């Protein structure tokens, strides 16, 4: 594959764009619609690799997924799930959200994925399913097989969810369909990405499911019962939006994106982070505009609530006027790649001074030069390379197609905004 040279604009990047639908809300929307008590219509769904694989996974379990118009999909659950064959790709939302649903099918469902998928943890989730009465073969990593029997007894499970909040979400999403519901207890270090668990609980509540979290967010309960079918409009993906907003920060421009007034995404954390790095945030009723001065301010950035921003924020800090750091994100070592190692290697190779800490990175600007940028099959490493390229000519991404994981046409959107 020929490298993709990140565009370096001659002046401030100014413009507006609509970012495709939220990966996290689309994945939950599909899974909950598949588990619903009737057909649901989802509008504004993300159409990218992760969500295409999700559709294929659900279809393989007997769910009818029909396009009504671009971005509008009707999801009709079957009377009984059929055993399937699931390609997870590199999607955490598939390897961790679909097993509990497959456990409701009558027969074995095999989960496989990209070579990189086997490095991503799934054992705590599959161990939890085991405690709830489900047999799983090879539960250490992808590939594994879930042996459904048509019903899941449910009850109490105790797992260590410190490596990913998706273990919790994956059990909560299907738990109303377990015979005894679910009482889930976390035992271990802090559970990451609490806003994503809140999104799960909010979307369950929207469908009439009685679900709750303990005061300290270490235990959750879901009452058994139906999951109501529900038509829903999916919000734009605010994490992906942050990559485009970063272009304003680096170049001293202004970028506007649609922004929902009420959101289940970790949006405040994202906007607060861009402000901490020197951006000015103008939040209107339905949009947000971020403008920059052209100087990124180095800062100590706590990404505990928005760890998906790690790669883009690391690129911004490499371009900053003073040293900075990122903390609260130790678990991103388990994301699409070990993001702390990947960022240390790639930003380091381009001239920044980067060191890993226990839960993040320290980043000091250096003399930055263009050259190769490895993406490690990780969409967000690709976004980081693109952001670095805004100010450093000749950053060459080895695999810009990694971005198709959550945006079907990132290269076109980026060129349209940056090179306009
Ligand atoms: O539930 C979700 O949709 C997600 C939860 C988070 O996972 P982790 O808790 O593993 O960080 C996030 O990083 C991921 O991109 C999406
Ligand atoms: C961690 C991420 O993805 P996944 O849903 O595959 O875990 C991400 O998109 O940053």
Provide keyphrases for this structure.
aromatic amino acid biosynthesis; Enolpyruvate_Tfrase_sf; EPSP_synthase; 3-phosphoshikimate 1-carboxyvinyltransferase activity; globular; 420 residues; 4-stranded mixed β-sheet; 2 domains; alpha/beta; amino-acid biosynthesis; UDP-n-acetylglucosamine1-carboxyvinyl-transferase, Chain; binds shikimate-3-phosphate; binds phosphoenolpyruvate; 23 strands
Short structural description:
It is built from 12 helices and 23 strands. 31% of the residues lie in helices and 23% in strands.
Please characterize this protein's 3D structure.
The chain has twelve helices and 23 strands. The chain has a four-stranded mixed β-sheet, with helices on one face. The protein has two domains: 4-20 and 236-418, Enolpyruvate transferase domain (UDP-n-acetylglucosamine1-carboxyvinyl-transferase, Chain); 23-233, Enolpyruvate transferase domain (UDP-n-acetylglucosamine1-carboxyvinyl-transferase, Chain, Alpha-beta prism). By secondary structure, the chain is α/β, with parallel strands linked by helices. It has helices at residues 23-34, 49-60, 92-102, 123-131, 166-175, 194-206, 238-251, 267-276, 310-318, 339-349, 379-389, 410-418; strands at residues 4-5, 14-16, 40-43, 64-69, 72-76, 85-87, 106-112, 135-137, 144-149, 155-159, 182-186, 211-213, 219-222, 232-233, 254-258, 280-283, 287-291, 300-302, 324-327, 353-357, 360-364, 371-373, 395-397. Helices cover 31% and strands 23% of the residues. Bound molecules: shikimate-3-phosphate (S3P) and phosphoenolpyruvate (PEP). Phosphoenolpyruvate (PEP) binds next to helix 3.
């Amino acid at each position: 594959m020929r490298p993709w040279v990140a565009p370096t604009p001659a002046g401030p990047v100014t413009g507006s764009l609509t970012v495709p639908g939220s990966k996290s809300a689309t994945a939950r929307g599909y899974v909950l619609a598949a588990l619903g008590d009737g057909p649901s219509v989802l509008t504004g769904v993300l159409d990218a690799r992760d969500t295409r694989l999700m559709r294929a996974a659900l279809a393989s379990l007997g769910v009818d997924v029909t396009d009504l118009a671009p971005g509008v999909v009707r999801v009709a659950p079957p009377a009984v799930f059929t055993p399937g064959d699931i390609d997870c790709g590199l999607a955490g939302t598939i390897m961790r959200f679909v097993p509990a649903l497959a456990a409701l099918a009558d027969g074995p469902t095999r989960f496989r994925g990209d070579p990189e998928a086997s490095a991503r943890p799934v054992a705590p989730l599959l161990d939890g399913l085991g405690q709830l009465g489900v047999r799983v073969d090879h539960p250490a990593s992808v590939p594994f097989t879930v042996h459904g029997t048509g019903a899941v007894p449910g009850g109490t499970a105790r797992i260590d969810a410190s490596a990913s909040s998706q273990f919790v979400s994956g059990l909560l999403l299907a738990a109303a369909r377990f015979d005894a519901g679910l009482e889930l207890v976390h035992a271990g270090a802090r559970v990451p990405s609490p806003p994503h668990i809140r999104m799960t609980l909010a979307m369950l509540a929207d469908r009439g499911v009685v679900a709750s979290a303990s005061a300290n967010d270490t235990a959750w309960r879901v009452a058994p019962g139906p999951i109501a079918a529900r038509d829903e409009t999916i919000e734009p993906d605010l994490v992906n939006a942050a990559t485009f907003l970063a272009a304003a920060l680096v170049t001293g421009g202004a970028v506007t994106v649609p922004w929902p007034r009420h959101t289940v995404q970790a949006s405040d954390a994202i906007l607060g982070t861009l402000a901490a790095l020197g951006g000015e945030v103008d939040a209107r009723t339905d949009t947000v505009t971020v403008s920059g001065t052209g100087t990124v301010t180095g800062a100590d950035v706590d990404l505990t609530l928005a760890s998906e921003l790690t790669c883009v924020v690391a690129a911004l800090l490499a371009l900053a006027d003073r040293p900075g750091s990122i903390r609260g994100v130790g678990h991103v070592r388990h994301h699409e790649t070990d993001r702390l190692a990947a960022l240390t290697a790639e930003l380091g190779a381009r001239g920044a001074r980067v060191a890993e800490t226990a839960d993040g990175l320290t980043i000091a600007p250096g003399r930055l030069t263009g050259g190769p940028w490895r993406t490690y099959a990780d969409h967000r490493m690709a976004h980081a390379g693109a952001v670095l390229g805004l100010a450093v000519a000749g950053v060459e991404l080895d695999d810009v197609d990694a971005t198709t994981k959550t945006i079907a046409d990132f290269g076109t959107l980026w060129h349209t905004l940056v090179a306009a």
